[in-house]
């Protein structure tokens, strides 16, 4: 008999729309692979979610992105319910989403990170807190949500009118110039290296998800020793956080060294997403990829 899989999608984070696309793609592929699939648009009502998870599925495919779905919250619920789920555990998910903590762990593991400070909204509005160019980031969002790049001659962002909806603390990070690369990791194996190019100011939300917003070169046109180093660092970052299943590490190359930007423990699986493209380059079809994720689902009861 085929396994019963519940696909969690949607949610209420700022990445809801992307999650719906990822969830729809996973649902379609899992059905093609022969699984019995139930799609669940997750809302804030946890009682309703637990009702939808009864009878208990054999596994949950977690296609949620952003806060509450990717930061350990839903993972904790599934741990309590003893339902295996795809992607990383509660702890690894929480560590990866907390950008300052993740950077501290990466640095201790010997992976280069950009210098940063943690400040308040008022401090940013009162003037530059580090030398330009710099990047303003929320501490715990994904998909470049809320990210601003401030260069020489730019007006610093002011939030008096629009507000800053991402918490009291803000990360201000030195901008790393150069080329951008991404590496998908499947358990302990890097799938390949993708170079990302865009005509936009940086690889922001629109560049990531809008049609034609960015170009992905798979494999990246770089020397093999350079590709090997990116892949080594991506696997090291995956292991440093304690990730499992699939993750994706994003890097900048400043001309001399790779600098890690972040690890995404639940990378997108939309038609424009990097992980399915790298998997296909490695000879793994999309239905094979999501099937592998389901077969390697775990929980920490």
Give a description of the structure.
- It is a single chain.
- The chain is 32% helix and 24% strand.
- It has 301 residues and is an alpha+beta fold.
- The chain folds into 3 domains: 4-86, Rossmann fold, CATH 3.40.50; 95-113 and 177-291, ATP-grasp fold, B domain (D-amino Acid Aminotransferase, Chain A, domain 1); 116-174.
- The chain has a 5-stranded antiparallel beta sheet with strand order 10-9-8-11-12.
- Helix 1 packs across helix 10.
- The longest helix is centred in the last third of the chain and has 18 residues, at 224-241.
- The radius of gyration is 19 Å and the shape is globular.
Topology:
Blueprint: E1 4-10, H1 16-32, E2 36-42, H2 46-52, E3 59-62, H3 73-81, H4 90-97, H5 99-108, E4 116-120, H6 121-125, E5 134-137, E6 148-150, E7 169-174, E8 179-186, E9 189-197, H7 205-209, E10 215-217, H8 224-241, E11 246-253, E12 258-264, H9 274-281, H10 286-295
Keyword list:
single chain; alpha+beta; Rossmann fold; D-amino Acid Aminotransferase, Chain A, domain 1; five-stranded antiparallel beta sheet; 10 helices; 32% helix; 24% strand; globular
| Helix share bin | 25-40%
Cα distance spanning the termini: 25 Å
Biggest beta-sheet profile: 5 strands, antiparallel
Could you name the CATH homologous superfamily of the largest domain?
ATP-grasp fold, B domain
The strand line-up of the biggest sheet is: 10-9-8-11-12
Q: DSSP strand (E) fraction?
A: 15-25%
Low-confidence regions: none
Cα shape: globular
CATH topology of the largest domain: D-amino Acid Aminotransferase, Chain A, domain 1
Averaging pLDDT over every residue, what do you get?
A: 90
**Count of DSSP H/I helices:** 10
CATH architecture of the largest domain: 2-Layer Sandwich
Order of helices and strands: EHEHEHHHEHEEEEEHEHEEHH
């Amino acid at each position: 008999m085929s396994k019963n899989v519940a696909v969690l999608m949607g949610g209420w984070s700022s990445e809801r729309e992307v999650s719906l696309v990822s969830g729809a793609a996973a649902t379609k592929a899992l059905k093609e692979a022969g699984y019995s699939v139930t799609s669940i648009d997750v809302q804030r009502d946890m009682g309703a979610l637990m009702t939808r998870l009864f009878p208990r599925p054999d596994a949950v495919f977690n296609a949620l992105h952003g806060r509450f779905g990717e930061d350990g919250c839903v993972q904790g619920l599934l741990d309590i319910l003893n339902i295996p789920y795809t992607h990383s555990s509660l702890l690894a998910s929480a560590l990866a989403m907390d950008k300052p903590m993740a950077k501290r762990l990466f640095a201790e593991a010997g992976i280069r990170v950009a210098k940063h400070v943690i400040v308040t909204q008022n401090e940013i509005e009162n003037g530059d807190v580090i030398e330009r160019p710099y990047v303003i980031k929320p501490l715990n969002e994904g998909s470049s949500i809320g990210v601003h790049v401030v260069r020489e001659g730019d007006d610093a962002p002011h939030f008096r009118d629009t507000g800053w909806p991402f918490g009291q603390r803000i990360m201000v990070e030195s901008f790393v110039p150069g080329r951008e690369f991404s590496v998908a990791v499947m358990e302990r194996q890097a799938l390949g290296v993708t170079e990302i190019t865009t005509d936009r100011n940086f690889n922001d939300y629109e560049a990531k998800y809008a049609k034609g917003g960015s170009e992905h070169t798979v494999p990246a046109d770089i020397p093999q020793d350079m590709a090997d180093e990116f892949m080594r660092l991506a696997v090291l970052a995956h292991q440093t956080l304690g990730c499992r299943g699939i993750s994706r590490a994003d890097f900048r190359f400043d001309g001399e060294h790779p600098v890690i930007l972040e690890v995404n423990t639940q990378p997108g699986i939309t038609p424009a997403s990097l992980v399915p493209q790298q998997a296909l380059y490695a000879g793994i079809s999309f239905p094979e990829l999501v099937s592998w994720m389901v077969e390697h689902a775990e929980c920490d009861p």
